[in-house]
Amino acid sequence: MKRILTCSMLLLGMYQTILAQVWVSQPKRADMWHENPSLSFQSGQSTGIIINPQLTFQSIDGFGYTLTGGSADVIQALAPAKRTNLLQELFGTQPGQMGISVLRIGVGATDLDGEAYSYDDIAGDVSLRKFSLAKAQKSIIPLLKEIKSIQPGIKFMATPWSPPAWMKDNLATKGGSLATEYEVIYAQYLVKYVQEMAKEGLSIWALTPQNEPLHPGNNPSLLMTSGQQNKWIKNHLGPTFVQAKLKTKIIIYDHNCDKPEYAIEILNDPETRKYVDGSAFHLYNGDISALSTVKKAHPDKALYFTEQWTGTKGDFAGDFMWHIKNVIVGALNNHAQTALEWNLANDSNFGPVTPGGCTECKGALTISKEGEITRNQAYYIIGQASRIIPTGSVRIDLQGLPKGINGTAAKRPDGKIALILQNETTNKITTNLNLTGKYAVVAIPEEGVVSILL
Length: 454
Description:
Layout: E1 8-10, E2 17-19, E3 21-26, E4 31-36, E5 41-43, E6 49-60, E7 62-67, H1 69-76, H2 80-91, E8 102-106, H3 134-137, H4 140-150, E9 155-159, H5 183-199, E10 204-207, H6 226-243, E11 249-257, H7 260-267, E12 278-286, H8 290-297, E13 302-307, E14 310-311, H9 316-333, E15 336-343, E16 345-346, E17 361-362, E18 365-367, E19 373-375, H10 377-386, E20 393-399, E21 405-411, E22 417-423, E23 429-435, E24 438-444, E25 448-453
Parallel strand pairs: 6-23, 7-8, 7-15, 8-9, 9-10, 10-11, 11-12, 12-13, 13-15, 16-18
Antiparallel strand pairs: 1-2, 3-4, 3-25, 5-24, 6-20, 14-17, 18-19, 20-21, 21-22, 22-25, 23-24
Helix pairs in contact: 5-6, 6-7, 7-8, 9-10
GO molecular function, one term: hydrolase activity
Domain Glycosyl hydrolase family 30 beta sandwich: 392-451
Domain Glycosyl hydrolase family 30 TIM-barrel: 60-357
């Protein structure tokens, strides 16, 4: 059902009319990202939602996904023109395009690759002479280069799922811990990865030392306790990054919100914290407020939300609403500088996947063997924010939200204000938006989400 909202406003101290754009998503009606004309602002102040651009919080790096090796394979397999059109849709910044601004990539294989591998699988190669990005040259690197040509400011966050198996105490891609005798070599391995990617013209903006360090049951995976990660960063990874003069940020933890103490323990170490930009979280356990717990303990350190899946058995509307509440609104309101969903794309069988990897992870896109593209929950979850909140925006204060409404707001680099308002109730909620001496009436549809650009 189409809802028409008209909007123009005169900002205080300015004498020009500004049209605000409005987009509505109602997942139960399969009506997603429907553009509606304007809200009408008038002079005065009313009860309702108060937008306060003067009270600012964290800067926002952006929104996106993990580009696994498997997702790179299925996208790269598209016909060239179709692939380019898709990448323009995803990463372009023109009206109608998604403007994805952050991509997380594996250092070697993730569990959504066709096989488990590292970039140096030659046992005992402590000089790293056999280090090679050859496996990434098939799909990942060409795709990243094409994406960068579309979105030059794209930020790449790299994450290993496992060190090379020969560097681990169990000599396997799954589980085990980093062997003490290879702690120095592994730090050098990650430096070499950043340097070799730079030679390809692909700058690594940030690196998390280990994906889900408390989940050694995946393939690939690694057990790395907070004590182990702290010691390794302090004695090896941090100093090796400094010696190599890398500008890549080190972001710790990269696991669930039920263990904020993992990040806090590391940041409590005065020697380690000087190498660390911040900490990253997923939400398969715990509560999104854990990010604020870490922020309170270490207000000078950044926070990132880096992964949440949608599954093959999930409900489209239920997934969309839960992720908007927690991954988008919740993460931003708890100081996250990124909000990333899990896998960007997979095939019709939800692969490729390693033996023992996730067989129920649904990508933002499903791409069939024939090249047909289906846009799934995660596509719309990220798009609800990425289309209106670009890199460099700053979260601003939003108060007076009615019961049943979740919301967040940001001031963009161009001075415009973006809002996301979510109605969890089964009834339409009408309220007022107040900004700089003006107000407008806004109707937020039942079980729906509204994105507004003022």
